[in-house]
Design brief:
Largest sheet: none
Low-confidence stretches: none
Mean pLDDT: 84
Distance between the termini: 69 Å
Oligomer: single chain
Order of helices and strands: HH
Helix content: 55-70%
Strand content: under 5%
Length: 102
């Protein structure tokens, strides 16, 4: 005979403590991917080849330098923000309930 017992599925909701750091990590991960790539192509086409009229090979080198500096800035900002969260430097304001006195 087959087991006709019900199967219980337990849904584990995300811990509210971990949602904030996870969102922060997700934002910085997306920034580390999109910011250097976007700034590389923007600085290459608009700034170096467009405004300064630099030859394409030199514009590639300058744009790569911009992308590397950008990734370092995003990484430093991520370390600063996440380290500050870990130390508890950011304070969260919890709403307080006040009772009316008669």
């Amino acid at each position: 005979m087959a087991d006709t017992g019900t199967t219980h599925v337990t849904y584990y909701s995300p811990d509210q403590e971990n949602v904030g750091p996870f969102r922060t990590l997700l934002v910085f991960t997306l920034m580390m991917v999109t910011a250097p790539i976007g700034l590389y192509f923007m600085s290459k086409t608009v700034v170096f080849e467009g405004i300064f009229d630099v030859d394409p090979q030199t514009a590639n080198i300058y744009s790569a330098i911009v992308a590397v500096v950008t990734i370092h800035l995003v990484l430093a900002l991520a370390v600063y923000v996440l380290y500050g969260d870990d130390l508890g430097l950011r304070t969260t304001v919890t709403p307080t309930t006040s009772k009316k006195k008669d």
